[in-house]
Amino acid sequence: MESVGSIIVYVVIALAIVICSVLAVTTRKILRAATYLLFALFATAALYFQLDYEFLGAVQIAVYAGGIVVLFVFSILLTSHPGDNSAKLASRKRVLGLTGALLLLIVAGYSLISRCEMITALPQGENPPMKFIGETLMGTGHGQYLLPFEAISVLLLACIIGGVVVARKNNN
Amino acid sequence: MELTILWYLIPSLLMFCCGVYGFITRKNMIAMLISLELMLNAVDINFVVFNRFLFPGELEGMFFTLFAIALAAAETALAIAIIINVFRISEKIDVDDVTKMKY
User: Fold this and answer.
1) Chain A within 8 Å of B95 (Cβ-Cβ)?
2) Closest residue on chain B to A22 (Cα)
């Protein structure tokens, strides 16, 4: 049995996630789409905080909301006039998109709801301590993640170099 | 009322469906990328929720989400570099207009 406060917090977060995602894909101004994406990502971070993963919520805010959305806004301002509306949707395309999304929603939603034995209440748990997270990320033992960590760092380096090479102005 | 695992999976499912809808209907490449981010984010939520509810005390889902966030950042940066380059060549970034490499 949850307290009333956590249920209210959950309802606010869930509504923010759903409404912001719907608006992010239906609004016709692209800068607004990026803004709604930002709020959807913030609501996701709040969900992580509510589930006691504070480190993950902080990473979500720092990387997604702080990094990726800024990148989106910059590229939108570089490539289009922010006030412009995008063209009206062809009805065929809208029907196609709605069909795909609703089909997915029905299939996945039905399989979720029909699996009643999977539904468990929130088990007792606390925020994993920072020391444990650091040791898991940096250890080489069983269930520790030094190799993926290094692979990600090399990937990010390659991605930075690739981004510079691709986006650089060609002079000759 | 009890907040079971289903209550957390349904918003993430709706978020994923929004991403699918946007990815099919949008023409602007950056808007398609925004829909892609929504889908990735919904999957991240699923990892965290399953980890928290089914395996409390372990951190596998959390680390998977951590690496997925890093991968999403890398992918977005590269995709935006490509989009800006396409814009420099053809002055527009709608997928219907970028047909130079077709066939």
Assistant:
1) no
2) B18
